[in-house]
Structures are given as C-alpha cells and as structure tokens.
Amino acid sequence: MPDYIPPKDGDLRTWLNNYVTACNVHASVLNLTAADLAEISAAADLFGNSLDLKEQLAFQAKGATAAKRTARSSTVATVRQFAQEFQKNPNVTDAIRGDLGITIPDSNPSSTTPSVPTNLTAFGCSNGINQLRWNRNGNIGTTQFIIEARYGNDNNWQFVDVVTSSTYDHENQTPGEMVTYRVWAKRTDKRSGYSNEAVVYSVGSSSSLSIAA
C-alpha cells in the first residue's frame, strides 16, 4: 500500500493544512477531542514553522553569497591597483614582494607563449568547496594560472584567483549552485588560450561535469 504522505516538503505543508481542516470538520465522526485536535494542529505547525525557517535561511544565504562576490570583486580590484603601483616602484625588492604575496618577476623569463591548460575538471563538495584540477601541459613552475567562473546561466566571466599550481579549491560556494570554470595561463606579457570549461552541478545532475571548449 503506497504511503499517502507527500515526499516533497512543500506538498506536505499543503497536505497537513488540509488534514488539520478535515479533522476539525469531522471531529465528532473521528472521535477527536479538543486535546486531540490541538495535538494534531501543533504537529502541523511545528513542521510548517520549521520549513518557513529553512526557506528564510536559504534565501539569506543566497543573498550573503551574492554580497560576498561583490565585496570580493571590489576588494581584489583595490589591492590589484596598489600591487601594480608596488611593481613599478624601483625601491620594492623581491623580498618585499614575497612579504606582500605578489608576483616576483621571473629573472629569466621564457620568451615562448604559455601552453593552454588541459583536462580541467571540477567537483562540487557538500561543504561549499569546488575542487578544480587541470594539466599544466608543459608550462614551467613560474607560470600563472588565472581561474575564471560564471554562475548559473550568466554569460559574464568573473575573476576567481591566480595560482601557480595546477589545483585550486574554490571555497565558500553554495552547494548545488551551477558554476562553470575555465583556466588560462600567463607568463610575463604572454598568455595562452582558454582551457576546456568544467561545470559543477550541471542542469539535471547533482554531479560535476567537464565539457570541451
């Protein structure tokens, strides 16, 4: 015999409201006392209030994530502007650059264009970390990899971070939100083309997916 309790929370809320109403209408036939009706109503209210709270917190979390992205973009733009001025300052040594955590110029830069990173993959974790991995494709250790992302169906790419490794954990993401990633390489004034795109939480699937560029 199939269970009559709706599996989806929204449907269960509607079903409970109808259940409570029917119990009150047919209380005498169902041999329900005032205490019984109060208990049934309280049980329905408990679930309804919990569902309301969950939906409210989810909405707040989505807003906080959007605010964080805006703040990150603004902050990165500010520190990059100052970092560019630091790089132009002849008094700023490599040791100071190291303390600042900014790029130390390659004393023997390669004159060749960086190779396109390959085999980019992305995997979304329930803790809000999207794990990215790619193949350096022969790029030397000082090569910078610029990571970009776009969210949902937005066509605008956003800067995420720059690293010299071939792995990256994108933290503070919303589990279940679709994010598309791409990576490109930079060395001195030369840059590569874009890697393949990797999608986390693709439409119609809870898993990650790597697609060709």
Kindly summarize this structure in a few lines.
This protein is of the alpha+beta class and 213 residues long. The chain is built from 3 helices and 9 strands, in the order H-H-H-E-E-E-E-E-E-E-E-E.
List the helices and strands and how they pair.
Layout: H1 9-25, H2 34-88, H3 94-100, E1 118-124, E2 130-135, E3 144-151, E4 158-163, E5 167-170, E6 179-187, E7 190-194, E8 197-200, E9 209-211
Antiparallel strand pairs: 1-2, 2-5, 3-4, 3-6, 6-7, 6-8, 8-9
Helix pairs in contact: 1-2
State the end-to-end distance. 50 Å
Indicate the CATH topology of the largest domain: Immunoglobulin-like
How do the SSEs run, as a string of H and E?
HHHEEEEEEEEE
* Overall number of strands: 9
| Helix-and-strand structural type | alpha+beta
Q: Identify the CATH class of the largest domain.
A: Mainly Beta
Tally of structural domains? 2
**Overall average pLDDT:** 87
Largest sheet: 6 strands, antiparallel
Q: At CATH's second level, what is the architecture of the largest domain?
A: Sandwich
Give the low-pLDDT segments: 203-213
What's the name of the CATH homologous superfamily of the largest domain? Immunoglobulins
- 3D shape: elongated
Q: Specify the oligomeric state.
A: single chain
How much of the sequence is in beta strands?
15-25%
Structure, described:
- The protein is of the alpha+beta class.
- It has 2 domains: 8-104, no CATH class; 112-211, Sandwich (Immunoglobulin-like).
- The protein has helices spanning 9-25, 34-88, 94-100; strands at residues 118-124, 130-135, 144-151, 158-163, 167-170, 179-187, 190-194, 197-200, 209-211.
